[in-house]
Amino acid sequence: MIEINFIGLAISMVLLFAFMTPIILNIRKNNKTQKALLLQMENAFLKHGLKVHKIESWRHRYAIAIDHEARKLIFINTGSEPQEIFIDLNEVNQVIIHENHHLNGTGKESYKVIDRLDLILLGAKQERYKLSFYDSEVFSDVQNEKPLLDEWYAHIKTIIQNRPVQKAAVLA
After folding, report:
1. Which residues, in sequence order, are CB contacts of 69 under 8 Å at separation 6+?
2. pLDDT class of 172 with cuts at 50, 70, 90
3. Is 156 exposed, middle or buried (0-12, 13-18, 19+ CB in 10 A)?
4. CA-based nearest residue to 145, from 136, 31, 93
5. How far apart are CA 7 and CA 28, in angstroms?
6. Is residue 27, in this structure, part of any structural domain at all?
7. Can you give the residue range of the structural domain that contains 57?
8. 169: in domain
9. Distance (Å, rounded) from C-alpha 94 to C-alpha 116?
10. Does residue 122 sit in helix, strand or coil?
11. Phi, psi of 71 (to 5 degrees)
């Protein structure tokens, strides 16, 4: 017959519960934050009468979404300085990836450390929209921001290049 040490089992269960509780609470908090961010994005689209065709969110703080038919983009940052940026892609002439970095180490031992990743959209009327995808002042490491930035750069560039040509009014 197998003997069970109930005191050891009870202590193990208490320690396991004590270890798992903060992890579970953090997951719940992040899920709640993510839902609030996506709800904020959905409300922004409804406010402007748009439909979400593509949406991305990262770090429970940033979200970007686009309506292909209306050619409108919304970017949300819920950080210390919250922003909700509405961009009419019909008014955008150029999109640029801005990567700010510095080198650590010397010679062959040096490596690049990314400080900021931004997507900059330049408008026809000198508007300049800066969409921050990563900032080392806020987060200590780059996770998936670079591929996400590259993907949205290509996506927006395609939309800008495929803009319908506006016909000039013919004067009679």
Report:
1. 51, 53
2. very low
3. buried
4. 136
5. 31
6. yes
7. 6-161
8. no
9. 20
10. strand
11. 60, 50
- Identify the band that residue 154 occupies on the pLDDT scale cut at 50, 70 and 90: very high
Cβ neighbours of residue 88 closer than 8 Å, sequence gap 6 or more:
71, 72
Q: Taking the CB of residue 144, how many other CB atoms lie within 10 A of it?
A: 12
Helix (H, G, I), strand (E, B) or coil at 115: strand
> At residue 75, what is the residue type?
F
Q: Pull the structure tokens for residue 87.
A: 């961009």
- Separation of alpha carbons 5 and 87, rounded Å: 65
Strand partners, 102: 113
Q: What is the pLDDT of residues 138-150, one digit of tens each?
A: 888 888 899 999 9
Looking at the predicted structure, is the pLDDT value of residue 169 above 80?
A: no
Contact criterion met (CB below 8 Å) for 76 and 60:
no
pTM of the complete model? 0.79
Q: What percent of the chain has pLDDT over 70?
A: 94
Domain annotation covers residue 170: no
Work out how many domains the chain is built from and give that number: 1
Query: What is the tens place of the pLDDT at every residue in 66-88?
Result: 999 999 999 999 888 888 999 99
